[in-house]
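User: Sequence in, structure out. Go.
Assistant: Echoing your sequence, followed by the structure tokens.
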Amino acid sequence: MDKKEYQQYDINTVPRFANLNPFMRATYQEDPAGLDIAMAGVPFDLGSSFRTGSRHGPAQMREMSRMIRQVHYPSISSIVSEWASI
């Protein structure tokens, strides 16, 4: 079984508001076979009656993760190369 390489959508060709909204702009994988990491957001809004809106948490996490860059320039380390696949 081939391992799938982690790749981000290119921000210069795909704007942040387009396409699906996966975590860290990773390419969406239909088949989870061969992945090292899989993340799933589970909206749960029944825990408190006075703070509604927690169901928006997973979508907001994915939206904010789009701002993460592939390379941390001060240390020249790459998150992408350290992850085998996501």
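User: And one key feature?
Assistant: DSSP finds two helices and two strands in the chain.
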